[in-house]
Amino acid sequence: MRFSTAAKLGRVSNLPTVWTNVLAGVVLAGGPVEVPKLVVLALLATLLYVAGMFLNDAFDAEFDAKHRPERPIPAGEVTRATVLRWGLILLDLGLALALLLGLPALLAALATAAAIVIYDLHHKQVVYAPVLMGLCRVGLYSIAAFTVVDCPPTQVWVGALALLSYVVGLTFVAKHESGEATLVRFAPLLGLFGPLVLALPLLGGSIEQQVLFVGCVMWVLRSIRLARSGSPPLIRSGVVSLIAGIALVDAMMIAGAGELGWALVAVGGFGATLAAQRLVAGT
Q1: For residues 25 and 259, is the Cβ–Cβ distance under 8 A?
Q2: Minimal CA–CA distance to 68: which of 281, 255, 243?
Q3: pLDDT 10s digits, 68-102
Q4: Burial class for 93, CB neighbours closer than 10 Å (0-12, 13-18, 19+)
């Protein structure tokens, strides 16, 4: 398999958002932010994410042949069996790496892997698929938090709730990117504003926190406008914009914990995602 094919299968342009997920998990847990541990967590998150993307393409090959013929499997760049095999290998490597992080983190990784597989197998058939996708991201928070503390504090779960709400809304939008139906319902999009509600205290904080909050509001509104355009290319553009916005959610949660320096790192992850999406498609 060529590297360019693997990059498309793994949607590697979105990886900065999984790295900011684990950063947020560590910071919100209140444990020491140690760079070596962050690197291990980032590698673990990368393996789980890319494995999930590979399995997603393997299980969706028939759907993609009709609606996304440019994807690597229907385009003939790689076989479905090869993608499935590598997806399972990457998932196993991620779980093997989790063994180094202690039993609580390993259990969180196993739960996350289960959510990934269940989502990839059934997301076209079940209405609760967006919740499953959200749990995959929440799993990264929990893995990171359990790596640095035995009992994560409340602010970890508040951040996880914000992320879950956002990803549920994002995934609802993504279900329309094939252009089968126009995104006209607004109610499911309210999940995208969950993090903003939880981050409202930032408006009473420093100027940096206020700017971050307003910037996130503007980005979500811009992405929704694109997603509701009715044009498949613009819907897809809205989806990738919202994916990049995951890093902004992480940044807001980190800023709410008073760690502005690490919040700026997460904002850098947002910028890195946008830049990488110009090179490799984010969906």
Answers
A1: no
A2: 281
A3: 898 999 999 999 999 999 999 999 999 999 999 99
A4: middle
